[in-house]
Amino acid sequence: MSRIAQAFDSGQWSVIASASAKAALLTLALPLAACGAGGFSLQKAEVDRSIITASAPSSSAAPAASDQDSDQTTIGNAVSSADIKELGGQTVPWANAGTGSRGAITELVELKDGGLTCRRFSATRESFDGVALYKGELCLAEAGGWRMQEFKPL
């Protein structure tokens, strides 16, 4: 037996171990008791209305509408410039760097009715506000430019 162990008999060791266990338990329980002493209650808890974060102006719908208009123009440009004969039914991807939106144009067909040339199509629009599917029709105007006749969400 070592000299330190010889200085204490087994009864003294149990007193020291018991006192150490009590001190450790008190050290762990004291902070928990302090938390409960304040009387915190969920029934008394209230929302702190003095802090406002991530607020957005109420007129945030206006930029979304202008983004959609810009995307509609981009889709119209992609439809009007597509070479339908070369595509052979393939999708036409489009992207608008100004809004961050992108998508694909499908079911693109060209129709001629009474001298009027039109292109009907479906298009997807993926943007920060979600994914949408549109049907549209673009017709060649007398002046030689294309004009969107119909563009509606499905």
What does this structure look like?
The protein is α+β, with helices and mostly antiparallel strands. Helices cover 38% and strands 32% of the residues. The chain has helices spanning 3-7, 10-37, 61-81, 84-87; strands spanning 92-96, 101-113, 116-127, 130-140, 146-153. A five-stranded antiparallel sheet has the order 1-2-3-4-5. Strand 2 and strand 3 (116-127) form a beta hairpin. The radius of gyration is 37 Å and the shape is rod-shaped. The termini are far apart. 12% of the residues are buried. The model has no long low-confidence stretch (mean pLDDT 80).
Basic shape = rod-shaped
Proportion in β-strands: 25-35%
Structural class by SSE content:
alpha+beta
The arrangement of helices and strands along the chain is HHHHEEEEE
Task: Work out the helix count.
Answer: 4
- Share of helix among residues? 25-40%
Question: How much is the radius of gyration in Å?
Answer: 37 Å
Please give the alpha-carbon distance between the first and last residues: 89 Å
Largest sheet: 5 strands, antiparallel
Give the beta-strand count: 5
Q: Reading side by side through the largest sheet, how are the strands ordered?
A: 1-2-3-4-5
